Amino acid sequence: MFRLNIKNHTYIALAYFFMAAALGILLRLFYITPIAANYKYIIHTHSHIALLGWVYLALTAIIYRLFFHDAKLSKKYRYIFLATNISLLGMLFSFPFQGYAVVSIIFSTLFLFCSYFFTAYTLKNTPKKHRNTHYYKLIKAALWYMVFSSIGPWVLGAIMSSLGKTSIWYKLSVYFYLHFQYNAWFLLGILGIAFYLFYQLKFTFNPSEFKRFFYLLNSGVILSFFLSTYWTNPPLIFYLAGGLGSLFLVLAFYKLFALILRNKMKLKQGLSPFIYRILQLASVLLIGKIVMQSLTAIPFFADLAFKNLDFVIGYLHWVFLGFVSIALFGFLNWLKLIKLPKKAFYLYLSGFLISEMLIFYKGLVLWLGLPFFSDYFLILVLISALIPVATGWILGLNLKSK
């Protein structure tokens, strides 16, 4: 029997975040100077390390902290964690040189199995005291969505070999995976952690309120996937399903924020001013995410997003670098899994906000045919560099204090 050092788990997640951020700078340097690397291969590396290295490991570290902090664990958990990191390192050192090929696919497949084992381990071993709580229901649903999202990668191989990358089914399988990662696994995982916080601060609300919120949220998550099919000009029923999903999500988050506002004083008194501001910011970014996602229920905006890659990149970074990562910083700091220096956080925030402005600016320029200043890509690189500098600062400080 052993106790996993959960802080080490978290530091490894931060290290992957730093590497993903550094790879993001490398991608932007392609527009400035010749780089002896394959752009698409670096994109694959960047996205996999960001989503599976940073977010997955950070979320699973917090889930472990919530459910197993006081429990002794078998070696099975250590093996799952070790295999997960072998798969991540395998992807990190294979994607840049071959993209999607035999070696990278093997390590990607290993990661999927590791995520299944983590899900099974968590659902089987979570102590009974947690099982009837609202936060457990949300985290349990998040884990199942993570498993469900893996249908996308599994069918991708069959589609590539039979129909090719030009098939609409190829893109739809990728969108399926990303939707249930971003809008289900990440979203419900963070909401589950938030409800654990609410539980600790003794929020007052009627259980029926949570039930309505939970059903609206899950209905919205499932139906809003059809927003990702609009570019195929599908039958009318797909448009109706996507629109209904957006409506359900708006109603769900209206109920959530009504609950939070009603218990605002408990939240303010139960958290340090710094963590309170971080979670406030994450809430604002979540509202922005819901607004942007809901706009794509209108065919005009869905078509605009499909044709303008900068809007898509801006949205994905808004969710990943903004809502998800900032919420994770706040919760990791609250749970004392990391030390978060204020200056490093605000440096990160500056890099995120200004780079988002630049990305959406480029999208608007291309859409409206406005003037485009010549040093755009250089300025974007310099501003974006604040993100790996900040994450490296946070990582270095935590390793030094350890």
UniProtKB/TrEMBL annotation:
UniProtKB keywords: Membrane, Transmembrane, Transmembrane helix
Transmembrane segment boundaries: 12-37, 49-67, 79-97, 103-123, 143-164, 184-201, 213-231, 237-257, 278-302, 314-335, 347-370, 376-399
Protein name per the record: Cytochrome C and Quinol oxidase polypeptide I
